[in-house]
Amino acid sequence: MTERSNRLIRLKEVQQLVPLGRSTIYDRMHAGTFPKQVDLGGGIVAWREQEVLDWMAALPTLDQKAA
Fold this sequence. Notes:
Elements: E1 8-9, H1 11-17, H2 22-31, E2 38-41, E3 44-48, H3 49-58, H4 62-66
Antiparallel strand pairs: 1-3, 2-3
């Protein structure tokens, strides 16, 4: 069984995982094509790490794009 991460990660860590800028992440999030953030209160938001990893895993590979 694969262990799933329960970590919450902040924007800087999301940007280390995916090669997208802040504006692009928020644009895609609002368009429904990137995982939504979690409001932790006090103006602090984070993303569920596993949702970001699942999003990355679902991206087409180069082989899939060529088909």
